[in-house]
Every structure is written in structure tokens, then in C-alpha cells.
Design goal:
Order of helices and strands: HEEHHHEEEHEHHEEHEEHEHE
Protein name: 2EXR domain-containing protein
Shape: globular
Number of strands: 12
Low-confidence stretches: 184-191, 344-356
Radius of gyration: 23 Å
Strand order of the largest sheet: 1-5-6-7-12-10-9
Largest sheet: 7 strands, mixed, barrel
């Protein structure tokens, strides 16, 4: 008996439709989307043909393609590990694949919502579209430049992990929404994305963070600019500016709906977490990349679920040591700012529990694990 395979185009339409639908991202899966954030003040030539469109006059940042794997490699949307790279092929393969993407992502829902905002501008700062459970799988699709062609990128803001890769330029994570084509100037500029990740730099350490905080507090009491003191010391200036940005995220995301994550590539998951914490393991958020997954570590129990390799220095300062200090510094700064009447705090102090860490939204920790 010979095996004969029909050409795909000769299959019954119902079967082709089913196959295309199975090729799209399964419902409920959280993807991983890599982007760069590029400053309009200091444009990088090799990225100039690989950015999103500018959407408003005073925009300071643009969303760009992922950072190349090396300094000599050319930027390319095709070489991305992002979920949108797979989606992009289905959007453009043929009419049937495009129809499957429309069925899966329902882009008309977002278009209808934009039309609602245009007709009712007062809703822009009160309606967070992605927070409605009925819209968790609603997509945001926007156009990016790809040399001489146009490319469409699709993300699920309520589910996907937006992994930001700075490209040797000053970058403030709080300003990420300034670059998002589907967020900036549309609804609330802080709260459109559910999950944002940055890479953890192993050289960051608690001692430097504490010295940064000492300099910050002294400058506030003196009503001065603490960073200005270090302009003649570029390495210190850059490091303190980074700490300042990380702390700002902790402070400003306290009343927002976005979770921020740090990824330490040295970490690995423990194979058998304690039985007493099985409920935490089942509740873990998992983000899916093409070749790996990112597991969210339960807050306060990181050491029960992940570890550094056995040969790692036993005196190693862990990422959770650093994030805990970030929380403490952010809370202390918030308290000082309230005392100095820098802003009106919208909550009563008694709602916070613990000492010194209730005024911020803690940075979460993600552990990357290969699928092989």
C-alpha cells in the first residue's frame, strides 16, 4: 500500500481551516516579546530603519527591534526569539493563515475600543482595556519599519512579557509607555502592560545601592541634585542613574497594574520545591518563548524555588538580596518625599504592613529554563 499525501491546497477547506487554527498561539499562553528602546535624542544609525512609527510630537523614545546578538550583527526582526516572530509569518503567509490570525486575535476589538476613546476622550485616563478578563487575549497590532518594507507586530498586553533590551543609551523604564505604539497617548501611559522584564546585571550590588541612597537622601535635605556631583565620574554617574531608575519603577508602579521583573540568567529552578509550597508552584506565572520558558518566582520564597549553580561562590550576593534592598530604598525615598510634600500620597499609612517595604511594588524574579 502506497502512502500518498495530498497537496495542502487540495485538502478540504474545513480541514485547512482547522490546521491553520492549530498553527496559531494557543489561548491562554503568555508569550515573550523582545524590543529595544531607542532615544530620539541620540539615534543609532543601524537601528534607524527598524523602529516603530512616531505617534506624537513630544515623544522621546521609539520602540525598536531586538538587540543584535553581537556588535557586528545587523538588526533584524526575523532573527528574534519573540512570539511575534511566529505570528508575523502567519499574518503574511497567505489569505487563509491571515484569516486564522483574525479569528485568534480579534483585532477588531482593539479597533472598536480606539474608536470609543476617540468619541469619548474623557475615558482615556480611566479605562484600562486589558484589565477586563474578557479582553485578556485581545491583541494590539502595530506597524514597524523594516528597511524599505512595513512589518506588523502583534502582542497581548494583558498576557505577554515585554522584555526590554536597552541599547547603550540612557533609558528610563518608567518611560517605556512613551515608546509603546499601542499605549502612549491612548489610555493611561502607566498600566497598559501587565508584565515588563529587564536583564539583571550581576555587578549590581547592595553596598553600592546603599551608598546611592545615602547620596540621594543628603541631596534631598540640601535641596540639590545628587547626580550632578558625579558628572566627572562617568562610571559612578551611570551606575547611580541606573539605580535611580530601578527605584523609580518600584515607587511609581505601587499604584499601577504593571508587574516588573528581573531576569538573572545564572539562576536555575529547583526540581522539587518543598511540599508545603506546592500551592505556590501551581500558581506560578509562566511565559513561553520559542525555545524556553520563564518562570515567575513566588515573592518571599525565591530561595525555595530557584538556586545558583553548585560551583557558584557561596558568598555570592543573590538577586533577592538586591531586590529586597531596592524595596527598602524605594520605601525610604517615598517616606521622605511625603514628608517633604513632594506629592500627595493617595493612601493612609496604616494600610501598609511590615517595616519600610510597603510603599513600593517589589521587583519580581524570573528564571529562564530551556525546553530541551
Amino acid at each position: 500500500m502506497t502512502c500518498e499525501f495530498r497537496r495542502f491546497s487540495l485538502l478540504p477547506p474545513e480541514l485547512r481551516t482547522e490546521i491553520w487554527d492549530l498553527a496559531t498561539r494557543p489561548t491562554g499562553i503568555c508569550g515573550v516579546q523582545y524590543f529595544s528602546i531607542l532615544s530620539l535624542l541620540r539615534p543609532l544609525k543601524r537601528f534607524q530603519h527598524h523602529v516603530s512609527n512616531r505617534i506624537r510630537p513630544r515623544q522621546r523614545f521609539l520602540l525598536g527591534l531586538p538587540r543584535p546578538t553581537s556588535d557586528t550583527a545587523q538588526p533584524s526582526w526575523d532573527n528574534s526569539d519573540s512570539t511575534y516572530a511566529i505570528d508575523g509569518g502567519l499574518w503574511t503567509a497567505c489569505k487563509e493563515s491571515r484569516a486564522a490570525m483574525y479569528r485568534r486575535y480579534r483585532p477588531e476589538e482593539w479597533s472598536d475600543h480606539l474608536q470609543l476613546l476617540k468619541e469619548n476622550p474623557q475615558l482615556r485616563f480611566r479605562v484600562v482595556f486589558w484589565r477586563n478578563p474578557n479582553h485578556f487575549d485581545t491583541s494590539a497590532t502595530f506597524m514597524v519599519n523594516d528597511m524599505q518594507t512595513k512589518r506588523f507586530v502583534t502582542v497581548l498586553p494583558a498576557r505577554d512579557l515585554i522584555f526590554i533590551q536597552p541599547c547603550d543609551q540612557p533609558f528610563d523604564p518608567v518611560c517605556i509607555w512613551d515608546a509603546m505604539p499601542f499605549a502612549a497617548g491612548t489610555i493611561t501611559c502607566f498600566g497598559e502592560l501587565s508584565n515588563v522584564a529587564l536583564e539583571f546585571d550581576p555587578s549590581w550590588n547592595v553596598a553600592e545601592l546603599r551608598e546611592y541612597q545615602r547620596q540621594w537622601r543628603a541631596s534631598v535635605l540640601e535641596d540639590g541634585d545628587y547626580l550632578a556631583r558625579f558628572r566627572d565620574r562617568p562610571e559612578t554617574y551611570d551606575r547611580y542613574e541606573t539605580y535611580d531608575q530601578l527605584v523609580r519603577v518600584s515607587k511609581e508602579s505601587r499604584v499601577k497594574a504593571t508587574s516588573f521583573w528581573l531576569v538573572d540568567h545564572r539562576l536555575r529552578r529547583k526540581r522539587s520545591p518543598p511540599a508545603a509550597h506546592e500551592h505556590l508552584e501551581k500558581a506560578q506565572i509562566v511565559f513561553h518563548r520559542n525555545d524556553c520558558r520563564f518562570f515567575a518566582m513566588p515573592e518571599g520564597h525565591e530561595d525555595r524555588f530557584c538556586e545558583y549553580p553548585p560551583r557558584t561562590n557561596q558568598n555570592l550576593e543573590t538577586i533577592w538580596d538586591f531586590t529586597l534592598e531596592l524595596d527598602r530604598v524605594g520605601s525610604e525615598q517615598t517616606i521622605v518625599e511625603i514628608e517633604q510634600d513632594f506629592f500627595d500620597w493617595p493612601f493612609e499609612p496604616e494600610i501598609f504592613e511590615g517595616e519600610g517595604t510597603g510603599y513600593v511594588s517589589p521587583w519580581g524574579i524570573l528564571v529562564q529554563e530551556s525546553n530541551t
